[in-house]
Automatic annotation (TrEMBL):
<protein>
    <submittedName>
        <fullName>GNAT family N-acetyltransferase</fullName>
    </submittedName>
</protein>
<feature type="domain" description="N-acetyltransferase">
    <location>
        <begin position="1"/>
        <end position="152"/>
    </location>
</feature>
<dbReference type="Pfam" id="PF00583">
    <property type="entry name" value="Acetyltransf_1"/>
</dbReference>
<dbReference type="InterPro" id="IPR000182">
    <property type="entry name" value="GNAT_dom"/>
</dbReference>
<dbReference type="InterPro" id="IPR053144">
    <property type="entry name" value="Acetyltransferase_Butenolide"/>
</dbReference>
<dbReference type="InterPro" id="IPR016181">
    <property type="entry name" value="Acyl_CoA_acyltransferase"/>
</dbReference>
Length: 152
C-alpha cells in the first residue's frame, strides 16, 4: 500500500513520505546503515534487504532522491518496534525526522497497538515528543544481542 503522508509545509518544500517499497533506494539505505549509523555498521546487505522485505518501511524523498528512512517491525495488532531511522546529514535541521516519526506513529495501520518500542543512543528528545519514555520495567526485558562486527 502506498501512503503519502501529507503535511503542506513539507510538500511545498518538495518533500514527501511514502510507504511504497518500490520507491525505496536500497543503495542509499544500505550505504547509510552500513557506513554511517552507529547501530548497523557491518550489516550484510542481504540481511538489510530481508529486514526491509519483512517490515513496514517509510521513505522520505525530495526530487526523486531518498533522504530519510524508518523501518517498523510489527504485527499490526499489538506491537511495533521502530528502527533504522535516519535523515541524511545534508537534510537535517529541517524537521524531517519529526515529520517522519509523526507519520509512523499516526499511520492508520499502526493504530490501537498495545506497545511501541525503540532503542536510541542520542535521539531521546525527538522520541519524547511522541510520548516515548524509558522502559517502565526494564527488569522484565531480555535480549540476545549478536552484532555484525566486533568493536575494535
Amino acid at each position: 500500500m502506498t501512503v503519502f503522508m501529507n503535511d503542506e509545509a513539507f510538500i511545498k518544500k518538495g518533500f514527501q513520505i511514502s510507504t511504497d517499497k518500490g520507491l525505496l533506494q536500497v543503495d542509499v539505505i544500505y550505504d547509510y546503515l552500513n557506513n554511517d549509523s552507529y547501530w548497523a555498521q557491518g550489516i550484510p546487505r542481504e540481511k538489510m534487504e530481508k529486514a526491509i522485505t519483512n517490515s513496514m518501511c517509510f521513505g522520505v524523498y525530495t526530487n526523486d532522491q531518498q533522504v530519510g528512512f524508518a523501518r517498523v517491525v510489527t504485527d499490526a495488532a499489538t506491537f511495533a518496534y521502530i528502527c533504522d531511522v535516519f535523515v541524511l546529514p545534508a537534510f537535517r535541521k529541517k524537521g524531517l525526522s519529526k515529520w517522519l516519526i509523526q507519520s509512523v506513529v499516526n499511520h492508520p495501520d499502526l493504530q490501537g497497538l498495545r506497545r511501541w518500542s525503540l532503542a536510541t543512543a542520542d535521539a531521546h528528545g525527538l522520541y519524547s515528543q511522541f510520548d516515548f519514555t524509558q522502559i517502565t520495567h526494564p527488569e522484565r526485558w531480555m535480549e540476545i544481542f549478536t552484532p555484525y562486527i566486533k568493536p575494535q
